[in-house]
Amino acid sequence: MRRREVVGLFLATPSAWAQQVRAQAAARVRRVGVLLTSAESDPDSKERSEALERGLAELGWASHNLQITYRYGLGEVEPSRRAAAELLTLAPEVIVAAGSTGLAVLKQMGLSVPIVFVSVSEPVAQGFVKSLTDPGGNITGFTNLEPTVGPKWLGLLKELAPVVSRVGSLFNLTTAPYAVLFSEAIKVAAPTFGVEPVGAVVRHSSEIETVLADLANEPGAGLIIMPDTFTTVHRHQISELARRYRIPSIGPFRFFPAAGALASYGVEVPDLYYRTATYVDRILHGELPSKLPVQQPTTFRMVINLTTAKALGLTVPPTLLARADEVIE
User: Fold this and answer.
1) Residue 1: which pLDDT band, with cuts at 50, 70 and 90?
2) Which residues make beta-bridge pairs with 140?
């Protein structure tokens, strides 16, 4: 063998070896953990996980190269802590955290594993990231609604139920401390709509009925359900009690009117999960979460439950029905 051929062989070998290593790395099964707020049996959990997996599949991730493990925090601190601990035993390379409660638990654990949050309001104010454009650390993701939507809810509630004169903003101060910012925005806008803002803060599901009964004690009651893992988990109870006490209610997501609330205006939640797949993919390919800017919602929907409107004796203006993205009958 000539010397040039021998040298060429040795030069080619490291390159071939590097290609083989890269191929093996690409072929190995990667691990992603997902911490959801709702129960495994909740249809919305299924819809969100399907949206995330559809986004990942479109980016080339499937069962042969990606293992996704789900755990359910149920919108409460202790269940979220247990669920997070279970995920960590599986050594995920990326964690997707839904909502503020689960994300707060993960941050308190001081993890170094990359975390992509989804459907979180005010991540800067809550101390999860340094800024939207420069998150820093190991956390980034996709935000939920911001306080500026508060007056929009108030205006929509008055269009649907002009008799409303007192409006409570329902949230759990433990799971959604940021909701105070939404309440302040509503308080500032309230005089414009001729309504009085009143308190409707709870700390446990056992307090929901008491708060709504107190709200209904005087005429003209209305209810704004805040974006909160607690209100999401207890949406059926909240919506049913609002109907029982004849309180027109509006929530931030479609699943509230689907559960019996009067209406919703807010983010298309499955779209957030679908978009989250892009950041999971980029991190699995080596990008740092600190370099991925926090993204904000792009798709919003208005949904009206016409059955609830009729049960409350309300006539929805045709112009409002025409603006709705969906009418539930």
Assistant:
1) very low
2) 116
The alpha-helical segments, DSSP class H, found in the chain are: 3-27, 43-58, 77-88, 99-108, 150-160, 179-193, 208-216, 229-233, 235-244, 255-258, 269-284, 306-311, 318-323
Global pTM reads 0.84
* Per-residue pLDDT reduced to its tens digit, 197-247: 998 999 999 999 999 999 999 999 999 999 998 999 999 999 999 999 999
Q: Give the number of domains in the chain.
A: 2
User: Residue 244 sits in a domain of what CATH number?
Assistant: 3.40.50.2300
Give me the domain span that covers residue 168: 147-267+301-328
In a domain, 2, yes or no: no
Helix ranges (H only) for 126-198 are: 150-160, 179-193
Tell me if 74 is assigned to some domain: yes
Q: Rounded to an integer, what distance in angstroms lies between the CA atom of residue 71 and that of residue 80?
A: 9
* pLDDT tens digits along 259-297: 999 999 999 999 999 999 999 999 999 999 999 999 999
